[in-house]
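#struct-help
A.M.: can someone run this one for me? Single chain, 263 residues.
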Amino acid sequence: MFSRLTRLQTIAVCALPVVALLATAVLAPLPFSVAQPGLTANVLGENKGAQVITISGAPVRDTRGQLRMTTIEATSPDTRVSLPDVVDSWFRTDQAVMPRDSVYPSGNSVKEIERHNEKQMKESQDAATQAALGYLDLDDKDVEVSLKLADVGGPSAGLLFSLGIIDKLDGDGTGGDLTGGRVIAGTGTIDAAGRVGAVGGVALKTQAAKRDGATVFLVPEAECGDARAELPRGLRLIPVTTLKSTVNSLVALETGKGSVPSC
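D.P.: on it. Structure tokens below:
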């Protein structure tokens, strides 16, 4: 013999699976990382007590201004990001929700990811050196470049490394500084041929740049839209595609001669 359920009891019984499902969705870890503006470092100076760029085998200039590479800080690869974290970050301009795989290689342990990032940084430094010396028509057998940037991994500082090497060795090519005395920040990978590549996270990197005094931001051309999305007031965007065009843009900005592209 079965007793008849009341209307409220029936609704309550049917609602239980839905409530359980919602609770699971809220508490379950999601394949995302939460990122925010990270540190910046002047590649023309020191970082954590060590010179970022050291050059031997050629005269080195005294430089004014700054060339600041930019980073984002993301939740660690083993951090559980839940739905409330995603919703909270969605409505904030100082945070961004990014697919975990775009920040960390999928399926790797923390140690493996650290080794991967270190490898990418080393490859980026080698390519940046080759690109800069190639631009200046210098032989890497005669000029030795050492790049050191503690606690930063990945390839996104490549462009700034190349520009720093050029500024220290040749400036703007006529005795002036490549920066024109400004604080210039930016991001972008670079290959040995001097081609600039996209990196991701540029909307957060522009905020880090502005926070640390930059007035100009060099952004891979393909990421102009992302950079404009949350662009801080007073920060000028210059799109870049190659090392040569980047140098030309900075020289034009400094001298007032020639055009400077914009996003």
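A.M.: thanks! The two ends are 75 Å apart (CA to CA).
D.P.: also worth noting: The mean pLDDT is 85.
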